[in-house]
Each structure stands twice: as C-alpha cells, then as structure tokens.
Design goal:
Cyclic Phosphodiesterase, Chain: A, 4-stranded antiparallel β-sheet, 3 helices
Length: about 190
C-alpha cells in the first residue's frame, strides 16, 4: 500500500498528456509563407514569443479528446472509419486576419484566421462531424472558428487584416499530440477526391 492510498492522502489527479484531433495542414510552401508573415508582423504587433514550427501549423477540424494515457485504439479506429467514408473534393482556404485569443495573460494564442475565405472549410468540417457522429465518435456540436495558432505570447491585440494566405486543401490528417512535448504522431491521412 502506498501513501497515496491511505485515508486522507487522496491521489492527485493526473493531467492529460495526450490529445487527438483531426486537422488540415497548409502545404509546405504555404507554411513557410505563414512563418515569414509571423516575422513581418513582429514589429507591428509586438510578437516576442517563439513561433510554432512550420510543420506544426494546422487548423483543428475536430478535437476528439484529451487523455491521461495514449488514446484508445477503438476511438482511433472509429475516427479512421469516419475519415475513410467521407467523400469531399479539394477546396481553397483563405486566411486574412490576425488576432490574439483569450487565454492566460502570459500565454495567449496569437492566431491567423479567415473572414470570407473559410466557407468551404466550414462545410467540410460540418460534414466530417456528421461522419464522426455516424461512426460513434462523440463530437460536440459547437462553434467552429477556423484558425492557425502562430505562437503563444503575453499581451494581446485586436483583429488586424493581413495579406491573404490562400492554399488548396487536398487532404486531412488524424493527429496524436503529446501535450507539452511538441510531438505530433500522424495516425492517418486521407486525400480529398477530385
């Protein structure tokens, strides 16, 4: 018997160490363009934080959960099934604004988001959500605000227009993120039909 199991010495709950989500990622050239945009914006909005690496840039479509242990294979299998059964064509995404989202004062997400250029993305995200629910994956019905997190920093600023960043989405991915480890494991990748 350990001290944690004695009366009056309740075990401290473990924090989640794993996250699973479906996302789209900009192609390599677009990710590099976004990285350059971050550096151009630094003197304008006062970014000081370290930018996310280009290969980590993504738009989360559906967050499937945070877990103490690696995700259950059943959840991964059902998410893969939903992804395989989704029929969708490639579409364009345009992001043209930056803003700081709410968060801890010293760790706010600074994000790139879109105004008019996310209509097809919104429709795709909704169709994917329906496919996930049909496959038995619990997906909350909530507000979807498509964005790419650029970095985390202190302070904040109001919405600012930027030169539009556009790319054609040709695939989506299922990602296992190791929280706090800056590690992403790809669990699946699906091409959009043409």
């Amino acid at each position: 018997m350990t001290q944690l199991t004695l009366p009056g010495f309740e075990a401290t709950p473990q924090l989640p160490a794993h996250r699973v989500f479906l996302a789209i990622k900009p192609d390599a050239a677009t990710a590099e363009r976004i990285a350059r945009l971050i550096e151009q914006l630094r003197p304008v909005v006062g970014f000081k934080g370290k930018a996310l690496r280009p290969e980590r840039l993504h738009i989360t479509l559906h967050h499937l959960g945070d877990f103490v242990q690696p995700p259950a294979e059943d959840l991964v299998a059902r998410a893969r099934l939903a992804a395989e059964q989704l029929a969708a064509s490639p579409f364009d995404v345009t992001l043209d604004q930056v803003v700081s989202f709410h968060g801890r004062r010293d760790h706010r997400p600074f994000v790139l988001l879109g105004s008019e250029g996310v209509t097809q993305l919104m429709a795709f995200q909704q169709a994917l959500g329906e496919a996930l629910r049909h496959a038995g994956v619990p997906v909350p019905l909530g507000h979807f605000k498509p964005h790419i997190t650029l970095l985390y920093d202190r302070g904040g600023f109001a919405l600012k227009p930027v030169e539009p960043v556009t790319w054609t989405v040709r695939e989506f991915v299922l990602i296992h993120s190791w929280l706090g480890k800056t590690r992403y494991d790809e669990l699946g990748r699906w091409a959009l039909g043409g």
